[in-house]
UniProtKB/TrEMBL annotation:
Cell membrane keyword on record: no
Alphabetical list of NCBIfam families matching this protein: PRK11752.1
Organism: Tetragenococcus halophilus subsp. halophilus
Cited Pfam families: GST_C_2 (PF13410), GST_N_2 (PF13409)
Protein name: Glutathione S-transferase family protein
Source organism superkingdom: Bacteria
GO molecular function terms noted in the UniProt entry: transferase activity
Length: 261
């Protein structure tokens, strides 16, 4: 039991610090000048699951011989609040990584939210995305599933299991149950498939793997893979290992990010 009583009106106490500098207001907090490199695609990101999606996609495009998918990759240190600088907020008003600007057009195009970037790159270069309306819709089903489901894993399970200042049974039980339900869903879906879409490797795999594959590998939230018995999801484990062997994936999760300072 907790001795916390819900107040009639919530108030933010500015002296209370949190790990990622969150506040109940949006917008920039300081003036910032982000560097712009020589390549057409400028990516501002970090090696989190959401950031890895785009890094993997860009490396897969390189592996596929797409010469125009050249990029500069800059580190946005969310622990230091880089995401709240004025230049970054101009690219992504939501102050979340990753964010990208495509300078190959007469007017630069900003792209934010990881799934939006993945879809943009797939359409721009006509790679890793099916063409028929039925297959494209199925791929979109899984993209939207991931963007809706992963917050329960990260902001829910990951936060209360690994980041919260003290353990609380109710939220850990709640989000563990949901995370295991999602792992089971993927395991069942992959029972007769090599990839999310079947035989074809697509941006659906690249979008889902950094969250669920990395969780199965034991690369997220300390020993969460043991706590969740994640490796017992055999079909999901096989898919995880299959994708982990791809050269572009190996590069994508180990890229060096340039400093913005």
């Amino acid at each position: 039991m907790s001795d916390y009583t819900i107040p009639k009106v919530w108030e933010w106490h500015q002296n209370e610090k949190n790990q990622f500098g969150n506040q109940p207001v949006a917008g920039s907090r300081f003036e910032q000048k982000l560097p712009v490199g020589e390549q057409p695609l400028q990516v501002y990101s970090l090696g989190t699951p959401n950031g890895m999606k785009v890094a993997i996609m860009l490396e897969e495009l390189k592996e596929a011989g797409v010469k125009d998918a050249q990029y500069d990759l800059y580190k946005i240190n969310i622990g230091e609040g880089d995401q709240f600088g004025s230049d970054f907020v101009k690219i992504n008003p939501n102050s979340k990584i990753p964010a990208m600007v495509d300078y190959s057009h007469e007017e630069p195009i900003r792209v934010f939210e990881s799934a939006s970037i993945m879809l943009y790159l797939a359409d721009k270069f006509d790679k890793f995305i099916p063409h028929s309306i039925a297959e494209r819709t199925e791929l979109m089903n899984w993209l939207f599933w991931q963007t809706g489901a992963a917050p329960f894993v990260g902001g829910g399970f990951g936060h209360f299991y690994y980041y919260a200042p003290f353990a609380q049974e109710y939220p850990i039980d709640r989000y563990t149950m949901e995370t295991k339900r999602q792992l089971d869903l993927l395991d069942k879906h992959l029972a007769d498939k090599d990839f999310i879409m079947g035989d074809e490797y697509t941006i659906a795999d690249m979008t889902i793997w950094p969250w669920y594959g990395r969780l199965v590998q034991g690369e997220l939230y300390g020993d969460a893979d043991e706590f969740l018995k994640a490796k017992e999801y055999k079909n999901l484990k096989a898919w995880t290992d299959r994708i982990a062997q791809r050269p572009a994936v190996k590069r994508g999760i180990n890229l060096e990010y340039k400093s913005i300072k």
